[in-house]
Amino acid sequence: MKKIVVINGPNLNLLGVREKSIYGDKDFLSFFEDLKKEFSDHELTYFQSNHEGALIDKLHEVGFSYDGVVFNAGAYTHTSVALGDAIAAITTPVVEVHISNVHQRESFRHHSYLAKNCVGVICGFGLASYRLGIQSFL
Ligand code: DQA
Q1: Which of 9, 37, 58, 66 is the most exposed, fewest CB within 10 Å of its CB?
Q2: How many structural domains comprise the chain?
Q3: What pLDDT, on the 0 to 100 scale, is given for residue 18?
Q4: Model pTM greater than 0.90?
Q5: Which one from 66, 76, 98, 130 is the annotated catalytic residue?
Q6: Full domain range(s) for residue 130
Q7: Atom of ligand 1 nearest to the CA of 76
Q8: Known catalytic residue: 76?
């Protein structure tokens, strides 16, 4: 049994409501219930915050005892040196995920401050990006 946490950053609490043509029409909490059933042999938890410091605190909390973090930092991916440093500081491996293919979008979304410190990056598969992120730890 592995302990894996899915962490979502800013605006991802609005999945299913926000820019549906990009992010789809499913709300994350119902999708997460499906994931929990699918990976019921493992301990899957979820955390979301719109606040950079709260995301850092969560990484510190889980970062020395969990088996994996599946992290969609939203727009902080492209702006946050502090989140990149937090990933470097912890020992739990982190996979960066994105729903959209950020490389097909505006150029400011092409750079990630997190990727260098992550074990890998998954983007462009819709909500299935999270499933692939979880599978990468199993
Ligand atoms: C996102 C991509 C980011 O560029 C954007 O700011 C988001 C969502 C994605 O999942 O595709 O909020 O991380």
Answers
A1: 37
A2: 1
A3: 84
A4: yes
A5: 98
A6: 3-135
A7: 6
A8: no
**Residues at CB less than 6 angstroms from ligand 1:** 11, 72, 74-75, 77, 98-100, 102, 109
For 55-96, write each residue's pLDDT tens digit: 999 999 999 999 999 999 999 999 999 999 999 999 999 999
Mutate to test the pocket of ligand 1, among 99, 111, 113, 130 (most ligand atoms within 8 A of CB): 99
- 3-state secondary structure labels for all residues of 116-131: HHCCEEEECCCCHHHH
Residue 135 and residue 113 in contact, taking contact as beta carbons nearer than 8 Å? no
Q: What's the rounded Cα separation, in Å, for the pair 134 and 104?
A: 24
CATH of residue 65: 3.40.50.9100
The residue contributing the CA closest to ligand 1 atom 8 is 74
pLDDT tens digits, 13-34: 999 888 898 898 899 999 999 9
DSSP H or E run through 87: helix 81-89
Q: Over 90: is that where the pLDDT of 122 sits?
A: yes
Is the predicted pLDDT of residue 6 greater than 90, yes or no?
yes
111 is known as an active-site residue = no
